[in-house]
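User: Predict structure, ligand iron/sulfur cluster.
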Amino acid sequence: MARVTALTHFLIGKKVVMAVSGVVLLGFVIGHMVGNLKVFQGPEHFNAYAEGLRTVGAPFFGRGQLLWIVRLALIAAVGLHIGAAWMVTRASWAARPTDYRTLRLIETTYAARTMRWGGVIILLFVIFHLLDLTFGPANPSFVRGDPYHNVLATFGRVPVALGYIVAMGALCLHVYHGIVSGCQTLGLNHPRYNAWRRRIALAFSVVVAGGFVAVPIAVLTGVLR
Amino acid sequence: MIGELRARVPEGPIQDKWERHRFEMKLVNPANKRRFEVIVVGSGLAGASAAASLAELGYHVSCFCFQDSPRRAHSIAAQGGINAAKNYQNDGDSVWRLFYDTVKGGDFRAREANVYRLAEISVHIIDQCVAQGVPFAREYGGLLANRSFGGAQVSRTFYARGQTGQQLLLGAYQALARQIGLGQVKMYPRTEMLDLVVIDGRARGIVVRDLVTGAIRSHAAHAVVLATGGYSNVYFLSTNAKGCNVTATWRAAKRGALFANPCFTQIHPTCIPAHGAHQSKLTLMSESLRNDGRIWVPKKKGDTRRPGDIPAGERDYYLERLYPSFGNLVPRDVASRRAKEMCDAGFSVVPGGHGVYLDFTDAIARLGKAGVAERYGNLFEMYERITGENPYDVPMRIYPAPHYTMGGLWVDYNLMSNLPGLHVIGEANFSDHGANRLGASALMQGLADGYFILPYTIGDYLAQARLDPVDTAHAAFRRVEADVRDRTARLLGVNGTKSVDTFHRELGTLMWNQCGMSRTRAALEDGLAKVRILRDRFWKDVFVGGKGEDLNQSLERAGRVADFMEFAELMCLDALGRTESCGAHFREEYQTPDGEAKRDDANFSYVAAWEWTGTETAPVVHHEPLAFEYVHLAQRSYK
Amino acid sequence: MHLTLHVWRQAGPDAEGRFVRYETDDASPDMSVLELLDLLNERLIALKEEPIAFDHDCREGICGSCGVVINGRPHGPQRATTACQLHLRHFRDGDALWIEPWRARAFPMVKDLVVDRSAFDRIVQAGGFVTARTGSAPEANATPVPKRDADRAMDAAACIGCGACVAACPNASATLFVAAKVSHLGALPQGQPERYERVVKMVEAMDAAGFGACTNHGECMAACPKEISVDFIAQLNRDVLKATLFPPRAGRAWSGAA
Ligand SMILES: Cc1cc2nc3c(=O)[nH]c(=O)nc-3n(C[C@H](O)[C@H](O)[C@H](O)COP(=O)(O)OP(=O)(O)OC[C@H]3O[C@@H](n4cnc5c(N)ncnc54)[C@H](O)[C@@H]3O)c2cc1C
Ligand code: HEM
Ligand code: HEM
Ligand code: SF4
Ligand code: F3S
Ligand code: FES
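Assistant: Predicted complex:
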C-alpha cells in the first residue's frame, strides 16, 4: 500500500490510477453494453437478466449482495478516476498560467483534446441515467422491476433518446483516447504494435458506443416496441 | 616584469614524466580539501569535467558560465569525434603514435612533454566517458567502434553519431549536476566573468556580472581556473557559438597572465560558405566528409555551367593533383589554404568568390545513395536545411572558416599560468596543439585537462601555497569591481550611432583579410594600424543602449567586442613577429617552392608568450624555447 | 521579402507584455529566423530603441539555447528544425510571423523572448546521471553494449534540452524531456545500478518544478527538433511503475535494459 501511495504521489502515478480505474470502468461498460443488447430478445429475457444480476452469487450471497459489492467497486473506481482526473487537470492548468496567442496543435486528436469535458459529459449523463433508469425520478412512467418497460418509455421521448446518443458519442471518444493513453500510461508500448494500439482502441470504442446506441435507435425507429 | 618562463616539465624519460610527477606532487590532506574554494570559469568539456572532478575530491567549487545552462557550452557543437590511443582496431596505433602525430600535426610548436601526457591520458578519457553513459557508436558485437578522422592513418576516433561533443558534454554536465545537487558545486549560469582579481601576485578571485540583473559581484577563492574556450569570434564569422569570446582570458592577460601564440588560429576547410551580408555565423560540416567527397573547381575561370555539366576533364581536383598520396585528406591548414588560393585565383564556384565543390557523385556511384546516406545522412540533411540545395543531386559548396584557436593563455606543465593560482584548461590555454590542431583532438585535450590533469596539479599548488584568508571585502576586490563598473558605464555612455555588431563585423573582416589564412608583413602592419583606428572609432561611436542593471545583450556583446579590439592587435603583432610559416600560421614570404609552409626551427622553435604592459605601451614578448627530443624535426609532407 | 513581425515584448517578469508589430522589407530567404531578429535589432538600435532579447548561442541546432513559438509552433513550422536553423525560405513574401516565448509556469519569463529553463537543470541534478567518479571507470570495452541498446540510448540522448516539448504540450508537461534522459541512461548497462532511484528522483523534481501532466497528446514529439519519440514516455512510465511498486530489494539483483 505504501508503494501505491508513493506512486500516486507523482502525476504519473495519478495517471496510473486513472488508467487502472478506467480499465475497471471499461470492463463495466462493456458488460453493461452486452447486457443491454438482451433487450432485443424481448421483455422476459431482459427483465430476467436484470433480476439475474441481483440473484447472481446465490446461495453464497444474499439477494443483491454481490451486485452491491460490484457497485461499491464501481463507485470506488469512479471516485478514483474523477479524483485523479481532477488533480491531474488542475496541475496541467496551473502549468501554463499565461496562454499563447495561438498554439497550433498538429499531432493530437480530437478525442485527446476532449477528454476532460467529455468526461464531464459522461458524468452528467450517468447522473441523469441513474435518475432515469435506476431510481426513476427522471422517468415519468418508471416502473420498478420492469427495466424493459423503462427503457422503452424513456427512449419514447425523442430528446432523451437523442441525448443518450450524443452522450454515447462522448463515450466513444473518451474510450478511444482512454485506451491509447492508458496503454502509454501503463507502459504498454512497442514500436511494432503501436499502430495496433490505435486500431484496437478504435474497434473497442466503436463497438461499445455502437452497442449502446443500438437501443435508443431501435426504439426511435420502432424496431423495439 | 616577468622572469624566465618556467614550464616546470619534470625530469626523466618522456614516458615516465607524468607518472613520476604525480608521485612528486604534494597532496592536500583530505580533511583540508573542503577548506579550499576553487573558482572554475566555464562549463564546457574542460570546465565541467574539472569542476565535477574537483568537487568529487572534496573541494568547494563555484562554476560560472554565460549560457542559461552549463550544458549549452560551446563544446556541445563538436560533431566529429574524440581521439584516443586505444588501438581497438589493431591498426598499429599507440600512445607513441598519437603523441607523434600530434606533435607533427602541430608543426613542432607544442611542448613535447604535454603532448605525450595527453596521448597517455587519452585512453582513460574513453573509459571515464563510457562509465558515465556516453552512448558512443558500437559494433554489432557490442564493442566500441572507431573511425579514421582528419587524415589520420589509423582509426582512433570515437564518436556518437554526429554529436560527439554533445554526448561528451552531457557526460561531464551530468557529473557536474550531481555535484551541484550534492551542494559541492555552486553553479552560476548566465554569469559572465569580467575581471580577475590578483592579490599579492596570486589569482584570488573574479568579478562577474549577473547577466539577468546586471549586478556586478565578486567571488573569492584559493585558486581560479579558466576554461573559457577559444577566441575564433575575433573574426566575427566563425564556426564558434555566438557567445564565444576572449574576455575572460584577455582580462586575465591584462592582470598579468601571459598570452601565448595568439596568432595560431585554425581555419577549418569544410564549412558552408557565407550567403550574404546578414550572415551571423558559419556552419561547420564534419571533416569526415572529406573521406568520401572529392574537392574540385572548374579548370576554366568563371565557368558558369552547372557542376554536373562540367566534364571530368575540365575539373581540377586540385588536392588530389597536388598531394597524390593524401589527396583530399591533407591536414586542415593545407586544405584551407589551397581552397583560398584557388578562389583568390578566380576559380570560385560561389558568386562573390568564396567556395569550392565537395562532390559526392563518385561516392554515390560506389556506395549507392543509401550507403552515402548511412555515413553522412545527417550532414547532408543539415546542408540542405541551411542552403536549400540537395547534396545528393548537386555537389556541396564549401569554404574555410575560422574554427579553433591554438593560442591561449600560457601555462606550465601543471596547467598553471605565470600568475600563481590561475590555472587555464581546454581551448583557453595554448598548450598541446602547437601551430595546428588535428581533428578530434580538442575534445580529448579539454577532458584530459579537466578530468585527469588539473585535479592533481591544483592540489600541488594548494598544498604548497601559503594563502592568507581572503574574502570579497578585501580592497583589491573593491578596486576591480570599480574598474568593471566604470567600464560598463563607459560602454553605455558612448551613446554613439553604430551598433556593436557593426563594429564586430568590421573587425572580423579586417582580421580575416589582414591576419587570416595567409599573412604578409605588409598586410599585418596595415592591419595593426587599422585595428587601432577601428578601436578608437568604436569607443567614440558605439551605441549600446538599455541599462546596466538589466538583461542587456547588447551590453554583453559590447564588452566582448571591446576586448576583441584590443586582442586583435596582439594577434597581428604575434603574426608579424613570427617570420616563418608553421602549421596554420602561413606567412606568404616564407614558403617552399611548391607553396608549403616553411618553418624556421633555428629561430622560431619557441612559444611566444606576450605580456601586456598597458594601453599606451607595447606588449613584451617572452620566449619559451621548445626542444624536440623524441619527435625529430621534419618538414611536414603530405605529397 | 516583405514580412510582418509581431514580437512579444516584455520588459521583465513583472512587467506587462504585449505584441509589437514590426515591418521588414529587406528579409532574405537565406536568412534564419534569428538572423531576421538580428536585422530587426540592428534597426531598433539605429532608432535608439531597445533591441529584442532572445536566447541563442550555437546557431547550429545543437546547444538548445534558442527557442521561440512562431505562428503557434515551437521552433516554427519546419519539422525537426530549431529556430536558429529555420530559414525564411519556408515562409512566403508578405507573411506575418507571430513570435512569442515558451509559456510555462516552470519556465518563468525573464525578458521579451527569454525564459528561465533552469527547471531542466534541477531535474538532472536530482538524479539524471550515472555516479562514476573520475578515475573509477573500468576499461571501456570491458562491458559490451549491444548495438541495439547503444542506438536506443543515443536516440534518447539526442535531446538538446531546448524545452520545445514543454512549449508544445497543451499541458506544459516536461515528460518527453525527462523520458529522454531516463531512457538514455536506462538503456545502458552503466545506468542500471541507479536506474530506479534515478527515475523516482527525476520525476519528483519534474513535478516539483510545476510542469503539467502528460495526457499523451504527442505534440511534444512533433515539435521536438531532435524528434525524440513518445515511445520513451512509455519507457519512463514503465520505469516509474517498477521503481515504486516493485522496488529492487537487497539481495535481488536487477538487470536487463528492458
Ligand atoms: C563546430 C565545431 C566542431 C568541432 N568539432 C570538434 C571535433 O569533432 N573534435 C574535437 O576534438 N574538437 C572539435 N571542435 C573543437 C572543440 O569543440 C572545442 O575546442 C572544445 O570543445 C572547447 O572546449 P572548452 O571546454 O575549452 O570550451 P567551451 O566548450 O567553449 O566552453 C567555454 C565555457 O566558458 C564559458 N565562458 C566563456 N567566457 C566566459 C566568461 N567571460 N564568463 C563566464 N563564462 C565564460 C562558457 O559559458 C562556456 O561554458 C569543434 C569546434 C567547433 C566550433
Ligand atoms: C465509463 C466511464 C469512463 C471510462 C471507461 C473511462 C476510461 C478512461 C481511461 C481508460 C482513461 C485513460 C487513462 C490514462 O490516460 O492513463 C481515461 C482518462 C480520463 N478520464 Fe475517463 N473514463 C470514464 C469516465 C470518466 C469521467 C466520468 C470523467 C470525468 C468526469 C473522466 C475523465 C477522464 C480524464 C480527464 C482522463 C485523462 C485524459 C487523458 O488521459 O487524456 N473519465 N478515462
Ligand atoms: C443507451 C444506452 C444505455 C441503456 C439502454 C442503459 C440501460 C440501463 C438500465 C435499464 C439500467 C437499470 C438496470 C437495473 O436497474 O437493473 C441501467 C443502469 C446503469 N447504467 Fe445504463 N444504460 C445505457 C448506457 C449506460 C452508460 C453509457 C453508462 C456509463 C457510462 C451506464 C451506466 C449505468 C449505471 C452506472 C447503472 C446503474 C447500475 C446499477 O444499478 O448498479 N449506462 N442502465
Ligand atoms: S525532448 Fe526534444 S523538445 Fe524536449 S527538450 Fe529535448 S530536444 Fe527539446
Ligand atoms: S504533448 Fe504533452 S501530453 Fe504528453 S505526449 Fe507530449 S507531454
Ligand atoms: S542557437 Fe543553439 S540550438 Fe539554436
